[in-house]
Structure formats: structure tokens, C-alpha cells
């Protein structure tokens, strides 16, 4: 089964996004279900809007993963993290990307075209994409932290009615 994934960029990250999209489809057998930036100018001043759209798609279980590429990946992930159940991280190296997924079950990764070369960015993507969180083998501390993160989201954020899955806080039920 193909992994459904969302991808977006600002105008700075557009060329990287196009290459990463091809890489996901051709090398990772992914199904890109969201790619709103069709031309470079579509990405100008849109990171907040795109972060909101991608987060809602993940909440609705249209896909469970997302990638955003801009100068650093930071602004987008800050905006995405305002959404109930979303764990988004900007990463600059493969080890942090791997741990983002294995320790935090992060659904969104922010990548910076001004930070790393395209080939190194693919290595970062591989580290995050290729090793999904597995509740049967995950550290107990990671699972406890996910449950605490859910309690925190419930205390601080409004859970939207459109949430269609457990957002990766718990094993699939």
C-alpha cells in the first residue's frame, strides 16, 4: 500500500519541493495527495495558510504525513503545531529526523532549502520517512510522552469535530 503524503513549499523551497515530490513518487512509492503550490509564485506569503490546510488534512486522515520546504522549515512547523494533535518539526540532519518520528511520532517535517543541499535533504527525508513509529517496539517513555502530549492538547487546544483518527497518540484501535 502506498503511503499518502502531503507536500507544500513557499516560493524559496519550490524547486526542492518539485525534486522531493519526484523522489517520493519514484523512489518511495508514495501517493502525494496534497500539493497546492503548482508554480513558484503560489508559495509567496502562504506558509500559515498551507500549514493550516495540511494540518487539517492530517486530522481528517486524508494522509498521515506531511512535508514542507522553505528557507528553514521553522515558520511552517510553528504554525502547524497550533493544531490539535499535530506534531511538526523542522529538522536539519538525519538523526534528528529519525528521532522526530521514532520518539515523537511526528507527522510533519519542515525542511530548509537554505540549510542543506538537495541530496542531504533527501537523506534527512529518508531518516524520517523510512522508519515509522511502531507502538509494539517503541520505548515506553515515548508512548507515555505521546499520551501526555494528548492530555496537553486537550487542556490547551480545542479538539475539532473533524478529527478522524487518534492522531498517532496511541496504537491504532
UniProtKB/TrEMBL annotation:
Which InterPro entries does the UniProt record give?
Answer: RpiB_LacA_LacB (IPR003500), RpiB_LacA_LacB_sf (IPR036569), SPI_LacAB/RpiB (IPR051812)
Annotated coiled-coil positions are: none
Q: What is this protein called?
A: RpiB/LacA/LacB family sugar-phosphate isomerase
Query: Which organism does this record belong to?
Result: Gilliamella apicola
Gene Ontology terms, MF aspect: intramolecular oxidoreductase activity, interconverting aldoses and ketoses
Q: Which terms under GO biological process does the entry name?
A: carbohydrate metabolic process
- Family note: Belongs to the LacAB/RpiB family.
Keywords, alphabetical: Isomerase
